[in-house]
Design a protein that fits this description.
This protein is mainly alpha-helical and 300 residues long. The protein has eleven helices and no strands. The protein has one domain.
């Protein structure tokens, strides 16, 4: 694999992990409801999943930083020299940002040995910091130290956090539907979906608005610049995947949910699970497209 391929793959895995570390705790707070038994089942499933995700996010984050330095230096061997590392961390605009990122990654790993009752909140805070920190390592930092630059960073932060709330929260919805499903009534499933739907609707609205603003920033207000460019092609694929996700989300909200009362207790979660699982797979592909966009120069 080339350095660029490793960089894209590491970004993909890293951000998928961060989306889950942010979205799962947030969605858990939303969907768990007042049933303590249900909340315990979902929480136990998350306590098994999130440590694995945190480890994957931490390792891929370190690989991403190593590939970032290697891409600038020309090779991994050159990137590992003391001279290169000192120059990167202390003589470039990226150095301080990456140092903060390394600290946050360390905290994300330390959470694994903390008491279970504070893990979710800590992961939520740390993943928020890591997702926003990325803005200064990508295209959003092109605005510089100005009011316009701060606006670009702010809109990027809204976009990525809203996306993480939507996509990263889907595993919680699957756990909610399938944990103890034999004992849960159809109206309980509908209540869970309704609570998540409220969160997702707000997140999607922010994604669409901030996504348009981000695209305008990249092309300086002229969408025609995207035509016949690599950046435009990848963006078009990303938008197609998002449109498919929105189609599935709309099906779940406006067709599957109203049918819950008429479905059998066994078939309802299974049918919804397949649809939500497909939505999650599309979300992971969207993250991959975003990872590729991050290393693709916008149109001049």
């Amino acid at each position: 694999m080339t350095i660029l391929q490793i960089l894209v793959a590491a970004r993909w895995v890293h951000f998928a992990g961060l989306f889950v570390l942010f979205g799962c705790p947030l969605s858990f707070l939303v969907v768990r409801g007042a049933d303590k038994t249900d909340a315990a089942r979902i929480g136990n499933s998350l306590h098994r999943l999130l440590p694995i995700i945190a480890a994957a996010a931490g390792i891929s984050g370190l690989v991403w930083i190593a590939a970032l330095i290697a891409n600038m230096a020309g090779s991994f061997a050159e990137a590992a020299t003391g001279e290169t590392l000192q120059a990167f961390f202390f003589e470039t605009q990226f150095g301080p940002i990456v140092i903060v990122r390394l600290v946050l990654l360390f905290v994300a790993m330390v959470v694994l040995v903390l008491p279970r009752n504070i893990r979710f909140g800590t992961w939520l805070v740390v993943s928020t910091g890591l997702l926003i920190n990325q803005a200064w390592l990508g295209h959003a930092a092109n605005g510089g130290a100005s009011l316009f630059g701060a606006l670009m960073i702010g809109i990027y932060a809204v976009h990525v956090l809203a996306a993480a709330a939507w996509v990263g929260g889907l595993p919680v919805l699957l756990f909610a539907l399938f944990s103890g499903r034999r004992a849960r009534r159809a109206d309980d499933n509908a209540a869970i979906l309704s609570r998540y739907s409220t969160l997702a609707t707000g997140a999607v609205t922010l994604i669409l608005l901030s996504g348009v603003a981000n695209a305008l920033f990249r092309v300086h207000g002229q969408f025609g610049r995207l035509y016949a460019t690599g950046y435009g092609d990848i963006l078009a694929i990303k938008l197609l995947l998002v449109a498919l996700m929105l189609g599935l989300a709309s099906y779940n909200r406006f067709i599957a949910m109203p049918r819950l009362g008429a479905a059998t207790p066994e078939s309802a979660p299974a049918n919804l699970g397949r649809s939500i699982g497909a939505e999650l797979i599309l979300g992971v592909l969207v993250i991959g497209a975003a990872a590729l966009l991050g290393v693709t120069p916008p149109p001049d």
